[in-house]
Structures are given as structure tokens and as C-alpha cells.
Amino acid sequence: MAAMNLIARDTHPTVARMLDSYDSPAILVSRDYEILATNDLYRDKFGELDQSDEHPRCYAVSHGYDRPCDEAGETCPLRAATASGNRERVLHIHQTPRGEEHVDVEMLPVFDEAGELEFFIELLRPLRTGSAREPELAMTGSSPAFNEMMGLIARVAPSDVAVLLSGESGAGKELAAHGIHRHSRRAKRHMVTLECAGLTETLFESELFGHVRGAFTGANFHKPGLVEAANGGTLFLDEIGDVPLSLQVKLLRLIETGTYRQVGSTEVRHSDFRLVCATHKNLGQLVEQGLFREDLYYRINVFPIRVPPLRERPEDLQGIARRVLEELGEGRHHHLTQSAADRLREYRFPGNVRELRNILARAMLLANTNVLDRDVIERALTPSRPQFDRAGRPAEAASAVDAIPEDLSLRGAEQRYLLWLLDHFGGSKTQAAQAAGISVRSLYRKLAW
Ligand SMILES: Nc1ncnc2c1ncn2[C@@H]1O[C@H](COP(=O)(O)OP(=O)(O)OP(=O)(O)O)[C@@H](O)[C@H]1O
């Protein structure tokens, strides 16, 4: 048996030993918040407790608080489990050796023979979605709106239920899909993404289902589809609202039966995948307008999760900015001055986190030092607030030509223009691509995000 670290006098060794039977970090907590024992997994993830502290309290160890969580403005699962007599679950941000992490906390009350509440077993499952180890996939945030979303992700991830992520462009839907996949039992297999916007019917079908050799002109080889690649893993359909009606029925069949046919073949194939979809559109409204099949809508919308726009969670701004600066800084430590951060908080971010990234990337290029002050942020914000003339052309374009640095490449100028359009259309790639006269796929490629 793994070594049990009993902190308290040997009063309840049997209960304490039970902690080893849990396959997640677990602690034994008294009714007055004292940690009585920890298991190996807990110590691996969260470190040893300070042995000089004779009465370590959960709120001090996990949060650095000097009083219980509910008195410090957070929900306290221990208090909730005491009141309900049942297990309670919340999502908390804990201090860990890796910094702050989101932890899915489950509190199980343990009763004595007389039915009196004796202690609690607390299970702590860190969410990798919030960790710093894989920066490109890590979601940063601690606002109530963000935590609510993370709580839903933690709940639904282990099941095989279809999830529909809704939210504005750039708010983090794809990142949330990765979070769901990585916390699912399918995490060791692939998450395969199909960007549905801007695909022609033929392309959609052959991308999704694959095609056999000779299926159509130019099909010189057999190509497996994404559905096949997603077997055992997760299929992520981004911008599901853009799937043409004629193809929705094929999608419905795939979801209902798990079967499909490659283009040009009569053989029925099977794939076992978990479906996650995302949209920035109001699908309910599309159903009412007859543009989206109602039966498909109910199939994909089993567990809806709303990804909140950045302006609804200003508390997250600074944390995300810090992470982005670290990520883009390539070893150089950039930071925002207080008034620069205040300036960002005044902005509404129609393009959400993606726009924040772009603004910071511009600010880093514009700044002469690694300190990003209000002035630099103001200049970096300018291309995000285009004025358009009646014809829909960015009126700032002319003056911007004067402001373009001499060494700006054609590609750089093109990117600036596309960013203008994106900002103008509230982050909608479809509208921006239409205005630029290119496909959404080309837009993605040109911006190379
Ligand atoms: N909470 C977050 N913390 C850190 N980075 C984030 C967060 N949310 C989003 N991002 C970053 O913002 C960018 C946009 O995120 P993502 O692609 O997931 O948005 P989206 O909602 O899927 O957008 P779209 O609808 O346009 O496809 C990505 O670079 C992503 O890494």
C-alpha cells in the first residue's frame, strides 16, 4: 500500500487510509477545516504540507486565506456539504507548485454510526485546461463567468455527450473544445477539427467522409476523411451554423448512426467519435428561419456551453495579457503599465481574446522597450477602431498609408487590412472574408493564426 501521510494524531487511521483507494488527489478534512491526512497523489500534485503547521486548514493551504472560503468571497464546498448532507462539487482556483490552477473540488461528507457528520473526504482534480504547461492550449481566467464555463467543461468532459459551444468570434470556443477533449476518456486519441465556414458542398463531404480514387475529376488517390481520423477521439465541427442545409441531413445520419459512406463508394463505414460543435450564430433562430434542421439542432445541442465574451469578464484581461506577452515575448519579459492596463479595460474587444492578442502583438512591435505604456497601447488600438466610409471602405486607410512604416511588407499591409475588416465586422470571419473578396479559408491562411 502506498505510504499515507497522516498529519493528525493517529485517531482515524482507517478513514485516512481510504484516501489511497481514490484515483485522484484526496485529503481528509475535519468539520473545522483542518486537513487530517493527504494521499500520495495529493502530495505529487500539490506538494507536501508545511510540517511546522500543527493545524493546517484547507483554506490556508489551497488559497492562502486566513478564513474559510465563503467568508473570503468564494463558495465553500465544505460549508455546502454540511448544509446539504450530500456530496458537493465546485470549481476553485488553487495555489499549486505550478502557480494558480483550476481545480475541480468534490467534497464527500462522512458520517459516524450515529449519523453524525464526522469529517469530509475532499477530492481535488486539477484541470489541465487551466495549467501553464501547454501554453498554446491553456485557458487563462478566474472571473465568475470564466469559472462557470470551466465548471461546465469539467462536468461534461468525462462523458460522451455532444457539446455545443456558443460564443462570439475569438472568445475561446476552439480552446474550450480542446479542454473538453483533453479531459475526456478519448484524450489519448486525436481531436480532429473541421472548419465548416466557407466550404463548398463537395469539399465538405470529401473532407468529412473522404473519397475513393476516381470519385470525381481530380480524385487521383484515395483520401480518408476526418470522420475516420476521429475514430476513438473527438470530432470538432467549428462554425456548424454554416453547414448548408443539403448536407445537414448527411451530418444527422452520421451522428445518429455513426455510419457514413466515402464519396464515390457504396461501402458503409463506421466511426466512434465524440462530437463537439461550435458556433457564433444563434442556431435557435436559424432553426426558426428554416436554415438549420431542428432534428440536427437537438442532436448537437445536448449540453450547451456559452463561452463568455471578453468584455463580460474584465477581471480576466490582465491575466490573459500576461500570458500572451510571455508567449509572444520569446524570452523577453514585456509588461503593461497600470495605465496601459486601465486603457485596455476601457476597450470593448469585439474580436475578444484573439483581438487582445493582436493588439498586444502590435504593441510589442511598436514599443521601443519592454514596457508597454498607455501611449503604445493607444497606438496599437488604432487599427482596431476603423472608421468606414459609406462604401464600407476603411476611411483610415488613406491616413494609415502615411503612418505605415517604410519596412512594412506587402504581406504585413494585407494583414493590417484584414484585421481592420475583422474588427469592423465584430470579428466575423465570414463577413470579413466576403468584404475582402476571399474565402474564409484564405482569410485564415493569410492571417496564419
Ligand atoms: N481564456 C483564454 N486564455 C488564453 N488565450 C485564449 C483564451 N481564450 C482564447 N484564447 C486565444 O484567443 C485566440 C482565439 O481563440 P479561439 O480560436 O479558441 O476562439 P473561437 O471562439 O474558436 O474563435 P472563432 O469563432 O473565430 O473560431 C486563440 O489564439 C486562443 O489561444
Structural account:
Helix content is 38%, strand content 18%. It has helices at residues 13-18, 40-46, 58-63, 77-84, 144-156, 173-182, 201-209, 226-229, 245-257, 283-288, 294-300, 317-328, 338-346, 352-366, 374-381, 396-403, 410-424, 429-436, 440-447; strands at 5-6, 26-30, 35-38, 88-96, 99-111, 117-126, 163-166, 191-195, 210-211, 223-224, 234-238, 259-261, 268-270, 274-279, 303-306, 335-336, 371-372. The strands form five sheets. Strands 1-3-2-6-5-4 form a six-stranded antiparallel sheet. It has a five-stranded parallel sheet with strand order 8-11-14-7-15. Strands 9-10 form a two-stranded antiparallel sheet. The chain is globular and about 75 Å long. Helix 13 runs parallel beside helix 15 and helix 18 crosses helix 19 (440-447). The longest helix has 15 residues, at 352-366. The relative contact order is 0.08. The chain folds into three domains: 5-126, Beta-Lactamase (2-Layer Sandwich), CATH 3.30.450; 135-306, P-loop containing nucleotide triphosphate hydrolases (Rossmann fold, 3-Layer(aba) Sandwich), CATH 3.40.50.300; 310-447, Helicase, Ruva Protein, domain 3. Strand 12 and strand 13 form a beta hairpin. The structure holds adenosine-5'-triphosphate (ATP).
